[in-house]
Amino acid sequence: MGTEEQARDLLCKIPYPGLERDIVSLGLVRSVEAGDDGVRITLALASPRPDVLEKLRSRIHDRLAAAGLNPVHVEVASIGPSASTSDPWARRGRLRGAGRIIAVGAGKGGVGKSTVAVNLALGLRDSGWKVGVLDADIYGPSVPTMLGLEDGARQVRLTDDRKILPLEAHNVSVVSFGFFLGSGAPVVWRGPLVGKAVQQFSRGVVWPELDVLVVDLPPGTGDVPLSLAQSVVVDGALVVTTPQRIAVLEAEKAAEMYGKLNVPLLGLVENMSHADCTCGRRSHPFGRGGADELAARLGRPVLGRIPFDEAEVEGGDRGRPALVSGPDGAAAEAFRTLAAGVRAHLEATVPEGAAS
Ligand SMILES: Nc1ncnc2c1ncn2[C@@H]1O[C@H](COP(=O)(O)OP(=O)(O)O)[C@@H](O)[C@H]1O
Ligand SMILES: [Mg+2]
Fold first, then answer.
1. pTM for the whole structure
2. CATH number, domain with residue 68
């Protein structure tokens, strides 16, 4: 076995501090190179917290040294906004109260983006975090239905200075465009209006003190993600896809968009994953493994693989997402794994714009 391969295998056995999951599957290892001067390992992190980085370094050094791999150089490559480029969104700020912001996007509709956003939020809640959900899918807000807040339009209240007070469902704070659209006719939104609406929805909400805000974006690369990234600091994005080729192709465009918006892409989520393709390294005649191919091209991990789950189809439409209706099921387990991966990424990094 070559040195690089050996080093990579060892890295696969190093858990992220505080988690059972290893640093390779979390997408923290960007490259492993063996040369005359030893083994060079590059970690992909937006802006690593010094204590976490120190722990990671010493774990890597110890593990590789024990196998006779010496010397080891551990470097960090940023997956976030690069310091050398001037920040095109200098006006944006951090949301008060909302610790970190995770955007959930997809190339096309119907791949399960909202299902993932909602269950990710619940998974993060289960991990002990205070969580909010912002349903910014102006074209098809489905979070109210998924969380049993169909009546949200009548329940939602504004403060005296016209700020939105979130509703609560399953111990998560929720604001949805759906609360304000009224039922019936789909709304046609034009660019400038979208920008205004997104700004109001991101900055004009009185969130309680949150650890993380999960934003359900509309599919595609339209005005909403652009407006969001312009008005607030988005700490990371996930792109949801199904294994089908067409969904993966569209997902790639969405992933590229986050790069242009200076939003770190944490990874992909493969929804309605096939149970017989958990390793995912092989390509498949029916287009399976597409998410893995894309992940490899992007140099980011597949952070979650959510199996097709009959109960989710039922429960999702009745305000009972997988993590509520079937917490012991395979889908719930997959969502918890995803949440752990997202949490690890966020904990490993210092928020942009915060004192470090
Ligand atoms: N893993 C899954 N297993 C079974 N059904 C799912 C799964 N993920 C999503 N669905 C169903 O697929 C439909 C589309 O999901 P949704 O989250 O609304 O997609 P999107 O937000 O991308 O348009 C919903 O009816 C949802 O319940
Ligand atoms: Mg949706």
1. 0.81
2. 3.30.300.130
